[in-house]
Design brief:
Elements (H helix, E strand, L loop, with lengths): L1 E5 L6 H10 L4 H8 L7 E10 L2 E10 L8 H9 L5 H22 L14 H17 L3 E4 L2 E3 L3 E4 L2 E4 L3 H6 L5 E3 L9 H10 L2 E2 L5 E10 L10 E9 L7 E12 L5 H12 L2 E10 L5 E9 L4 H11 L6 E9 L2 E8 L2 E9 L5 E5 L1 H11 L3 H12 L1
Parallel strand pairs: 1-4, 4-9, 5-8
Antiparallel strand pairs: 1-11, 2-3, 6-7, 10-11, 12-14, 12-15, 13-14, 16-17, 17-18
Amino acid sequence: MLAYFDCFSGISGDMTLGALLDLGVPVSYLKEELSRIPLSDFSISVASVHRSGIHASLVGVDVRDNKTHRNFAEIKSMIANSPLREEVKATSLRVFERLAKAEGRIHSCSPEEVHFHEVGGVDAIVDIVGMALCLDYLNITDVIASSIPLGKGFVECRHGTLPVPAPATLAILKNVPVYGTDIPHELVTPTGAAIITSLAQSFRPMPRMLIQQIGYGAGVRKFENQPNLLRVILGTASEDRNDILEDRISILECCIDDMNPELFGFLMDRLLEEGALDVYWIPVYMKKNRPGTMLQVLCKDEFRETLIRRILSETTSLGLRFYEVNRRLLWRQRLKVKTSYGTVTVKGVKDPEGKLRIVPEYEECKRIAVANKVPLRIVYETIVKEAS
């Protein structure tokens, strides 16, 4: 399922949760699932409100213990050791890690030590884990977002008065298309920025899609000239899928001839974890006919700076090149299909003639092969046959 986040008035954790609940996630399901993590002294309320005549869901988290501040290491342990589904835990931790890295850089401490008083502590956990639960319930596998509007002015926090956008928000939104407004309020919170940058595969106008549902999440403040809402549009990619798509990505590359080759495998894993679309090792001959290796990394622009820092810190290279390129690609979408191994995530790819091809995901197949003690090749063949 495809979700388009229309952030015309910004985004926050509670607005995201409200919009997803408005799409049909039962509040009872959310409360029941959240009760499976070791959190107490809070309650959730969902109110039906109107902004400029538009019905929306307003989520409130009443925290009775506001004095307990958890750092990222504690939150990570709490979520990782919970009985929630692996997909829910992975999405939640990805958002929290992005938040922790940004706050850590600003406050000059390691991400593990970051305390989450600034993003609300318990309510941040509820917003982020609740968001991940709703995505899983709605079977949302692909997210595209609009450009992000930013407010102006100042906001009061534990550290004093900060400019809007807050420093953490701006750090998280690096390489994301944003635009300024005259609205004298914080339109994008750090939690909202971390959620949308963790979920969205791209930031652009609404794609061609068949709309199925529309959900609105309300912000607490009321704006004079526009509704303070986040709109999430749920549907599927348009049936007119035979066109070859086009986008722009960055290519990072450098040549290395003085590094222990055992380190290359570790570097590839780290680059893929941090957002690389693909990583290549290409044999080359360098000055004085020295054999070397060209490292080439494909990535979206929003991950470029992180990957550059990783390459320069993990390799012996003194520098690298990067440039943007256009690429053409076939329509694809992650799908969940039922097989004899259970529900499995696969990639559906359409060729220029419109024929659908099922491509199993390697990590899914690896997990199934290990759990069932069967050859990986058999898992691939079985999933393709049964999914087709």
